[in-house]
Amino acid sequence: MSEQLGLLGYDYVEFYVGSAKMWAYWHAKALGLKVVGYLGPETGVKGKVSYLLELNNLRVVITSAINPSQYEISSFVERHGDGVKRWSLKVTDVNKAFDLAMKNGAIPAREPKRFENSEGYIEEAALKLYDDSEIVFINRDNYKGIFKPGFGKPIQKIEIATEDSGLEAIDHIVGNVRTNEMDLWVNYLNKSLNFETFIDFGPGDISTQYSALLSKVVRSTEGPAIKNPINEPYDGLKKSQIEEYIDEYLGSGIQHVAVITPDIIKTIAALRKNGVEFLSVPPSYYDTLKERGFEVTEDISELKKYGILCDIEGKGYLLQLFTKPIGDRPTFFYEIIQRRKGAQGFGQGNFQALFESIERDQALRGSLDKK
């Protein structure tokens, strides 16, 4: 058995965007997150701003440059648009996790470093992922302040009227990569982080009349579940959603973050009131759901009312719904998911309806027909 890295689960996701204030407002208003921390000139950090938003165990950092000296941020946004720069894993010991990952073949992005102030210290290190993405190891056991040094309380009290979404935590994070890159990154994560391949969707498993993709899911073998599906394009008659993502994002990157909720009907009802736009499926989907005899606790008419997808797997089932892209480019979006009775999959039974819905949006953008 490989030596363990001491992984304790997801910690945060950080976006690089053109306007952190606007993105923070959207996450607060639309998703119901709370702005609990701020970094910027007012806290002694020049050249950039970051907002820290939290809800239950969900933590999101949104960062933008405010002058050209912050080249890493501005160049990321210029190339990729607004998107996820990094996701973070809590670890028991940053130096140990980093050293083991290096020994296992990981590519370093930043060596372990301690950041400290009068309230203690945190330790971080980072690994390369995809093109311009990163995985961060973090430990804050010795820090009593807000998030990490440089962050303080929001400079003004932010009161935003919003419905309670009930979102709890990150369930999984999905990457889209170029043709023939999927196995490269699967092997990289499995070797570097002692992950394992959990699910393998091969040719024909995920396809519509027009487009197709390949996907593998890797997951942690220690501690709480850390799950990362990785998609690549596959030959189809028209441009797939993965090809569109790569074309618009200008490379491989993080496509979406799935957030878990204990009551998806309540959550989707709240998010719709908050103005979140979701992909839609035809009413016939729910007729098929009834015909298949799914035994679910929820009223199917309620699922239909809110457009929620349902998939049975083993003795359990999952409920899910996907937002439309939340930025100007058709790249990043969120998935809302509820797992019932131990369900561990990703909704393979919903893929047909989901991808046809995505294709309808692609057609509106004029990108479906291009090859």
What does this structure look like?
- This protein has 371 residues and is of the alpha+beta class.
- The chain folds into two domains: 133 residues, 2,3-Dihydroxybiphenyl 1,2-Dioxygenase, domain 1; 197 residues, Roll (2,3-Dihydroxybiphenyl 1,2-Dioxygenase, domain 1), CATH 3.10.180.
- Helix content is 25%, strand content 34%.
- The protein contains nine helices and 16 strands.
- A hairpin with a 2-residue loop joins strand 6 and strand 7.
- The radius of gyration is 20 Å and the shape is globular.
Name the CATH architecture of the largest domain.
Roll
The count of helical stretches stands at 9
Helix content: 25-40%
- The CATH homologous superfamily name of the largest domain equals 2,3-Dihydroxybiphenyl 1,2-Dioxygenase, domain 1
Rounded average pLDDT: 88
The major sheet is characterized as:
8 strands, mixed
Helix/sheet category = alpha+beta
Which band does the percent of strand residues land in? 25-35%
**What is the multimeric organization of the chains shown?**
single chain
Low-confidence stretches: none
- What's the end-to-end separation, in Å? 45 Å
Per CATH, the class of the largest domain reads Alpha Beta
